[in-house]
Design goal:
Layout lengths: L12 H7 L5 E6 L13 H17 L2 E2 L23 H16 L5 E6 L4 H13 L3 E6 H4 L1 H7 L9 H10 L11 E2 L10 E2 L11 E2 L9 H4 L6 E2 L5 H25 L10
Parallel strand pairs: 1-2, 1-3, 3-4, 6-7
Antiparallel strand pairs: 5-8
Helix pairs in contact: 2-7, 2-9, 3-4, 7-9
């Protein structure tokens, strides 16, 4: 097939099913429609998911499932103009039905690539699908490259700041206006030392993961720009280094799955 990428929605159904005999791994990119300051598009997370997924598919040949765009959000994201949130249970059902439907075409292994902080819904979904016998792995891109982020960036991973804006400059610069980039901060409702953020040390004594509580005031009340961090520090070069590491490491996982479980075989989840 002479196609740049293997997007499910761009192919006839018979070709989709036929390709599963060659590679039965399907990758589902997940993003969100969420304000990302005055300089980045509201579809920032979804564009990250789509463009990174394409780079992984180009390297590995996995089938790409359509990105559903909308994502689950913590409570403090709600009511911010530009953000269209789903409740966690809606998101769980969405992902579950996508995997069930894709399996009908012969796909036996699934990888969820999330580019939005929706760990509660994706982690729960993976376990529920496992009970049905589906082999599903879920990852959030920054979890795979914490070391690279610490190496190339000056600030921690926050919302629409240096790191996310750097990815945008590399992956979809046509939607970014750096003349409007700024910096902003918010204060959590408990001491920051008790909260482990998306980047930096994952674990530590006496620390909550960033999705384990209502730690923040509503964004629409606290933020003027919709930025957490310093977007002015972003560069295309930083984004390229981070994205390259994500693609390399996720591709390594896919190569391992291919070696262990060739097309047509199902890992014994159930």
């Amino acid at each position: 097939m002479d196609r740049k990428f293997l997007w499910w929605q761009e192919m006839p159904a018979k070709e989709v099913a036929a390709y599963a005999k060659e590679c039965d791994i399907a990758l589902l990119p997940l993003g969100a429609v969420e304000q990302h300051g005055p300089h980045c598009p509201a579809g920032d997370d979804s564009w990250n998911a789509i463009r990174i997924a394409e780079l992984i598919a180009k390297r590995t040949g996995v089938m790409l499932l359509p990105c559903p765009w909308y994502g689950a959000h913590p409570s403090h994201h709600w009511y911010m103009p530009g953000t269209i949130p789903l409740r966690a249970d809606t998101h769980v059902r969405l992902i579950t039905d996508i995997v069930r439907g894709a399996a009908n075409a012969g796909y036996n292994k699934f990888l969820i690539l999330s580019c939005h902080g929706q760990l509660p819904s994706t982690v729960y979904t993976v376990q529920e699908l496992g009970l049905e016998g589906f082999f599903v792995l879920s990852l959030h891109w920054w979890e795979f490259v914490k070391d690279v982020i610490d190496e190339v960036c000056e600030t921690p991973m926050f919302h629409a700041g240096e790191i996310e804006t750097s990815l945008a400059l590399y992956l979809f610069p046509e939607y970014v206006d750096m003349t409007k980039a700024g910096k902003e901060k918010a204060e959590p409702l408990i001491d920051r030392k008790f909260i482990a953020g998306p980047s930096g040390p994952r674990h530590g004594s006496g620390r909550f993961q960033f999705f384990e509580g209502t730690f923040n005031q509503p964004e629409y009340k606290e933020l003027k720009l919709g930025i957490l961090g310093d977007a002015t520090l972003a560069t295309k070069e930083k984004g390229e280094k981070i994205v390259t590491a994500v693609v390399d490491r996720v591709s390594d996982v896919i190569d391992d799955i291919k070696k262990r479980w060739p097309a047509g075989s199902k890992p014994p989840v159930k």
